[in-house]
Amino acid sequence: MGSLAYLQSVQIRNNSLSGIFPTTLKENSKLIMLDLGENNLSRTIPLWIGKRFKNMKLLCIRSNKFSGYIPNKICGMSHLQVLYLAHNNLSGGIPNCLNQLNAMILMNKRLVTSIDLSNKKLSGEIPRKITNLNGLTFLNLSHNQLIGHIPQRIGNMRSLLSIDFSRN
């Protein structure tokens, strides 16, 4: 991809791309939308992702073959409104730092704020701090190995339109 330093949107959805997360994107800090969904990308989500993509609003890497855990660095993307990581081979817990995604905290009806972490091997409890995301409208944690109770304060999330915790 070269050095496309001012590129703001990359949409390479539904191809037969294989290999790892494109490291050439590391040089671009202007990206606000990245859709690499429905490919055959593998290995781990890079640790530099949150540090380099601070202005990212949409990150879709669903339906690939990424493995490992969801890095806490992903929470460095404070402008993130849409996060789709579903249908990968990710495992481990849900990062507690998700409550730091400021764009999902603000109750701005013009923002579509969505988290899809379904169809993974995520384990542990649903972080209570996820209920701090007052602007969140869609939350899908289905088809995982989550345990424990649904956080009580989830009922206080007034913007939440859809929630799916099925098959845990």
Automatic annotation (TrEMBL):
Pfam families: LRR_1, LRR_8. InterPro entries: Leu-rich_rpt, LRR_dom_sf, RLP23-like. It is found in: Membrane. The keyword rRNA processing does not apply. GO terms for cellular component: membrane. Keywords: Glycoprotein, Leucine-rich repeat, Membrane, Receptor, Repeat, Signal, Transmembrane, Transmembrane helix. It is a single-pass type I membrane protein. Its main location: membrane. Coiled coil: none annotated. The keyword Membrane applies. This is Leucine-rich repeat protein. It comes from Flemingia macrophylla.
